[in-house]
Design goal:
Order of helices and strands: EEHEEEHEEEEEHHHHH
CATH superfamily of the largest domain: tt1808, chain A
Helix content: 25-40%
Largest sheet: 6 strands, mixed
Distance between the termini: 53 Å
Number of helices: 7
CATH class of the largest domain: Alpha Beta
């Protein structure tokens, strides 16, 4: 495969001829080679999925998900928000929000074709995160001129996302984690991290802090072993509890909380 959709006309290939892992997408039956992502692009992608997939309104999200709205089309946005069922095979239709990361080797004509394909088949928002030159996000919507959002601005996707997304959250891990934590708290009925702390204080100082630490771990989707829960509840030193709370924000597994 290696045809270029810019040559015009219909190409000979179909989505059902491709398998998961094949380095190609399809546009009007033409195969488009997709090179592996470099370090900067993959790191930014890993950050960007956090604030988007955890948004309170989002029920499904995916990375490099293959969408086949037509038999001769297969598109895989870097990040897809919505319409990502937990089923095998290519997904019918397109995601309502798609995010693409454009780094140094970006083929601009191929990117333009991909944006056109997605918007023409029902995607409501395509955000292109530019990693070369001044950081910025290009916003594409059907029937509207492209706009540019710079760092310090917020992106909105009404009907798809409940919360605005800071431009920096799509590539800066620290900003992305802060936004994801806000989203996770909101999913459990807390307005902010301060609200979690306040609830803990109301339950009693040390016990309240212990409860907040365990609640935070569970809000992050971590399974808390009984041994970890017992040791957190047994801790009474304020400084030690504060340190555990800080660690609960970043550990990958709950059993890492008490590791020395």
């Amino acid at each position: 495969m290696g045809s270029d959709p810019r040559l015009g006309g219909k190409g000979p290939f179909r989505a059902d001829q491709l398998r998961s892992g094949d380095p190609y997408e399809l546009s009007a039956g033409h195969a488009i080679h997709c090179a592996p992502t470099g370090g900067r692009g993959s790191a930014a992608n890993a950050a960007g999925i956090l604030p988007l997939s955890t948004d309170p309104a989002v029920r499904s999200a995916g990375v490099d998900t293959g969408f086949a709205p037509e038999p001769d089309m297969l598109r895989a946005p870097d990040i897809a928000i919505g319409n990502v069922p937990e089923e095998p095979g290519w997904v019918k239709g397109v995601p309502p929000l798609a995010v693409e990361y454009a780094d140094g080797a970006q083929d601009e004509a191929a990117l333009a074709t991909k944006i056109e394909d997605l918007l023409a088949h029902g995607t409501r928002f395509v955000w292109v995160v530019r990693l070369v030159g001044p950081r910025r996000v290009e916003v594409h919507e059907p029937g509207a001129p492209m706009t540019v959002a710079l760092p310090g601005a917020e992106l909105r996707a009404p009907g798809v996302l409940a919360n605005p997304v800071a431009v920096e959250a799509l590539y800066d891990p620290e900003v992305a984690m802060d936004a994801a934590l806000r989203n996770l708290l909101q999913r459990r009925g807390y307005a902010s991290l301060d609200a979690v702390r306040d609830e803990g204080v109301a339950s009693g100082k040390a016990e309240g802090k212990a409860a907040s630490i365990l609640a935070l771990l569970r809000l992050r989707g971590l399974v808390v072993p009984a041994e970890v829960e017992a040791r957190v509840h047994a801790t009474r030193d304020d400084a030690a509890l504060d340190a555990l709370f800080a660690r609960a924000l970043t550990v990958a597994r709950a059993d890492e909380l008490l590791a020395t």
